[in-house]
Structures are given as structure tokens and as C-alpha cells.
Design a protein that fits this description.
alpha+beta, Helix Hairpins, 10 strands, 30% helix, elongated, transmembrane helix
Length: 226
């Protein structure tokens, strides 16, 4: 999870998040080069005493500063579209979980396990154990296996919500009357935190998401839901 004074993104726990981090670094480098070039041009303009009477009628220069931005946009758009299509793929998921947003808690349904349904509320400060995180821990975590494709079906019962777990690269809107879906494959075990990322009301900041990812063999052994 994120920590104090963190500048970069959270460590990736899924292939999609790894791709997003790579694209972020790719775009950031392009932006850095553009900013350096613009600042260098401004510095020369402010410091030089020479004037060039031909600068206002330079066809070659105009061609360069028209084509170059187009090439830069293509270099950004192509990997962006690739990741966009990757996030929309659903390849025979091993497990389907339904998440329903309420004001202000989440309901989860394990459709492949006899319709197991439970609510997930934020733990009040008085109920926190040593090591628990304030405003992030819940009474019932979502236990899922790693190295298995998981499909999340996301909807809402009242207002707009957004089911988001940054370390997995997930953020899907929960819309009343609409069933959205997203897929992910976790690569390492652990406990990962998220929150509703849509301003859904007065207690918007009090409906966290906690995923407990465990090895597939342990998940298949029996009830591990907490």
C-alpha cells in the first residue's frame, strides 16, 4: 500500500498494473523531454541578444514543429490503446465475485461457492487491533487465490460508487442498474487495500476495500473467509 511521502505508484501485484507503471514511466520521459526542450528554447530567447529576421518565415521549422508533436502523440497513443484492450479482456476466469456498493459499505457474493454472501464494513477505531490500518481495514475481507484469473462483477444498489484497488490496477464504476466487469490475476500473496473512488455521499471515505490474496492450494482447502 501507499506510504508517507511516496512519490511513485504502488508496487504492482498484477500484470496489468505492471503495464500501467511501464506506460507511466514511458509517458513521463516524453513529458520530461518536451519540458526540457521548451525551457531551453525560452532560456535562449531570454538570454541571447541576437535577432533572426528569417525566423518568422521558416517553412522547415514550421514543418518540424507540426510533425514532431504528431509523432509524439502516436508514441503515447499506441501503448495506451494496447493497455486499454488488455484491461477489457476476459479469458475464461477461474472465479467470479460480485461486488455491490451501498451507502456506505460493500456486499460480496461468491457465485461459484453456493451463493456465499457477506457484507464488508469499515472497522471503527475502537475495534482496531495492533497492526490494523485506520479507515482502511474491514470486518470481512475478500479472500481470493493468486495466479488465477478472477472476474469481478460490480454494481450498485443506490448511488454511483467506484471499486478501486490501486496495486492491482483496478478501478471500475459501480452504477445502479448496470453490471460492469473487470478481471485481474494477482501474482503474489498479501493483503491489499482500496477505497471507493467516486464521491458517493457523506461517508464516501468510509467504505474501504480489502483483498486477502492467498495461494491457490490453500484457497481450495476449505473455508478461509474472515
Amino acid at each position: 500500500m501507499a506510504h508517507a511521502a511516496q512519490v511513485g505508484l504502488q508496487d504492482a501485484t498484477s500484470p496489468i498494473m505492471e503495464e500501467l507503471i511501464t506506460f507511466h514511466d514511458h509517458a513521463l520521459m516524453i513529458i520530461f523531454l518536451i519540458c526540457f526542450l521548451v525551457l531551453y528554447a525560452l532560456f535562449l530567447t531570454l538570454t541571447t541578444k541576437l535577432t533572426n529576421t528569417n525566423i518568422s518565415d521558416a517553412q522547415e521549422m514550421e514543418t518540424v514543429w507540426t510533425i514532431l508533436p504528431a509523432i509524439i502523440l502516436v508514441l503515447i497513443a499506441l501503448p495506451s490503446l494496447r493497455i486499454l484492450y488488455m484491461t477489457d479482456e476476459v479469458n475464461d476466469p477461474s472465479l467470479t465475485i460480485k461486488s455491490i456498493g451501498h451507502q456506505w459499505y460493500w456486499t460480496y457474493e461468491y457465485t461459484d461457492y453456493g451463493g456465499l454472501i457477506f457484507n464488508s464494513y469499515m472497522l471503527p477505531p475502537l475495534f482496531l487491533e495492533p497492526g490494523d490500518l485506520r479507515l482502511l481495514d474491514v470486518d470481512n475481507r475478500v479472500v481470493l487465490p493468486i495466479e488465477a484469473p478472477i472476474r469481478m462483477m460490480i454494481t450498485s444498489q443506490d448511488v454511483l460508487h467506484s471499486w478501486a484497488v490501486p496495486t492491482l490496477g483496478l478501478k471500475t464504476d459501480a452504477i445502479p442498474g448496470r453490471l460492469n466487469q473487470t478481471t485481474f490475476t494477482a501474482t503474489r500473496p498479501g493483503v491489499y487495500y482500496g477505497q471507493c473512488s467516486e464521491i458517493c455521499g457523506a461517508n464516501h471515505s468510509f467504505m474501504p476495500i480489502v483483498l486477502e490474496l492467498i495461494p491457490l492450494k490453500i484457497f481450495e482447502m476449505g473455508p478461509v473467509f474472515t
